[in-house]
Amino acid sequence: MMQGRFHMDGLSVYRPGLTVPIADVIRDAEQCGYPFKEDEAHYRKMGFETVSVEKRLSLEEMAERALEPIAGRCVQEGIELGEIWFAHTSKVAWHECNLFKTMLRRWRWEHVPLYPVEEHSCSTFHWVLCMARLPFACDPHKAVLLVTADLGIHPFYYIDDFMICGDSASACLFRQEHGDHRTLVVKYKAAGTVYDDDPSRIRQFHAMYYLGIRKIMLETLGEAGFTFTDIRLVVCGNINRQAWETVAGALRVPPELFYYATMRETGHITNSDIPSNLQHAVSSGALRPGDYYLTVTVSMAGTFGCALHQYVPANGKEGRL
């Protein structure tokens, strides 16, 4: 019988109310000089229709919106934090470098160690899952909080040749013994290659990355003694539909197993993809109590992440999503 390593005890996602048609995203980027090789039909084929764009809030305000429900719970229930991890992939302005200052004061978390994470790009969610065992080993009674936020400051942020990205923020609370989502196995790997902006290296990555995803998924299931028949869903990042169809083909599993229901509306919202799709899976009934599922991410940094979870809402006081 597998024992849960730790649990996700709460997820919160802030998505802007404004969704912009991809035609407008392409137009804005073109006007700024983006050298497009593809047209709107190309992005629609990849599964994109609109993208979340924040026009009103700052990066700090977005992060605070995502954090409020979980922070309120921590205060109300006396949940003590051991560490806070903050991740973003978009560039930030100079005045946003200390964006957590106000939030730490608001919830009296000035004493909690805060670690910014940038190098792991869109697989940071699984890197944090991998690293969470360390603070829990030091103090299993304290929670770990992951906060992510991304806000485009230029039209080029929202689009490249392979995907369309949106604005978002999210927060995820991890606890050793309590939570609706038990995490059983975590795998995280780096490809060992620096891709930067070298076109030939990027093409190489896009030609081969699905093999890295296939391998890490099989290793994750294998460690638990599972096969794909044992899991309900693969909750994955919103990179593009063709990518996950290719991975499904390589694994010889139905493409419907891969769950990225928010991609069509929001685009790829970087480190908020997994929390957003997981919330959607629970609220839509696609994920039911007792189900096992995988979460999977891949990033242009050449990193891959995969984890096996079980949805166990009875383990918490009530459903948190």
Index terms:
single chain, 321 residues, alpha/beta, Peroxisomal Thiolase, Chain A, domain 1, 2 domains, 10-stranded mixed sheet, globular, disordered C terminus
Précis, in short:
It contains ten helices and twelve strands.
Your description of this structure?
This protein has 321 residues and is of the alpha/beta class. It has 2 domains: 6-175, Peroxisomal Thiolase, Chain A, domain 1, CATH 3.40.47.10; 181-314, 3-Layer(aba) Sandwich (Peroxisomal Thiolase, Chain A, domain 1). The protein is built from 10 helices and 12 strands. The strands form 2 sheets. It has a 10-stranded mixed beta sheet, sandwiched between helices. Helix 8 (241-251) links the parallel strand 9 and strand 10 (258-259). Helix 7 packs across helix 8. The two termini are 26 Å apart. The model is unreliable at 316-321 (pLDDT under 50).
